[in-house]
Every structure is written in C-alpha cells, then in structure tokens.
Write a sequence for this structure.
C-alpha cells in the first residue's frame, strides 16, 4: 500500500497492490494501521453503496459539525471522476478543488477529510461506489454546494442530478462552519 497526498490539505490517494490472475483481482481495501502510520486516524462507523448510470452527477455533499464526516471512497464497478472542494476556512487549500479519475481496476482508494465537500460524475454505463464514513449519517446535518457553482468543469453534457443536489446553495453564498 502506497499513500500519496492529493492537493487539498489532508486528502490522500491510497494506492493498493492489486493481485490479478485468471480468477480476477484481489486487494486489501482498508488497513487502519497503515493510515495511522501516515497520520490519519479513521474508524469506520457506516458503509454506503451507490449505483449510478452514465452522466449522473452526485454532489457536492458534506455533513456540518458536530456530525461532519471523513470518507474513504472506492469504485467497485465502472469509472468515475471524483471531485473534492475544501470548505475549511483556515486551510491553505480553502476554496480550492481537485479531481481525479477512479476505476474498478486502478486499486485506488480516496481518503477525504472532514470539511471537504465530495461529489463525482459517472463515466461508465454503470458505476458502483462504496463509501466508508467515520461518523453516522445525520439527515439534520447534511448539506451541499451546487455542483456547478465553484469553477469546476465537469465535462458532461446533460448531467443527471437529484432535485436535492440541484437545490444546493451556490459556493459564493456558503458560510462555512468547517475549520482545519
């Protein structure tokens, strides 16, 4: 397992060794000791599973304090472009975003710290994404930034969004409760 920094303070790409043979692929998707050695303490509280068809945009999601969440994101099937937006007011990367492609074949897991909004667009006919979070879901604490309001080019025509995701606040009107 090799861990790299990803451009937003505290966000990581975890590159796993994928073993492949005639049966398929095998890899370890989570190792708390290895994350801890890299300064990240992550205790899984809940795991979510989402399926999305091509051009579905999900995001940009977060939970506000005191129920904010860090996430581990894996693509189980298909491929996505994952997007992170730093909302932490005292972070060097506040207001900045990064994106990366993740697929079922690349052996990558994305670690997203608390205070970073998360979203993705499905690039394949079907994408299955698995999220592990370190704090339970709280409907009263969920929030979001409108996907097209912070300068990222999603490179998707006719995106498919939920009504909830379309209704999120514009980034320039968001008063962040997050600190590093």
């Amino acid at each position: 397992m090799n861990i790299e920094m990803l451009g937003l303070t505290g966000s990581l790409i975890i590159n796993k060794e994928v073993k492949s043979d005639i049966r398929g692929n095998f890899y370890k998707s989570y190792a708390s000791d290895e994350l801890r050695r890299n300064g990240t303490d992550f205790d899984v509280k809940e795991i979510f599973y989402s399926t999305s068809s091509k051009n579905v945009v999900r995001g940009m999601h977060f939970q506000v304090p005191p129920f904010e969440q860090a996430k581990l994101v894996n693509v189980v099937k298909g491929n996505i472009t994952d997007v992170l937006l730093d909302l932490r007011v005292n972070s060097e990367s506040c207001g900045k975003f990064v994106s990366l492609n993740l697929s079922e074949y690349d052996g990558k897991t994305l670690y997203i710290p608390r205070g970073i909004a998360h979203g993705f667009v499905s690039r394949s006919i079907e994408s299955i994404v698995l999220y592990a979070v370190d704090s339970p879901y709280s409907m009263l604490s969920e929030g979001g930034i409108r996907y097209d309001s912070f300068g990222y080019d999603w490179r998707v025509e006719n995106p498919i969004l939920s009504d909830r995701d379309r209704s999120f606040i514009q980034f320039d009107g968001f008063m962040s409760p997050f600190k590093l």
The chain has a mean pLDDT of 94. The first strand starts at residue 2 and ends at 5. The radius of gyration is 16 Å.
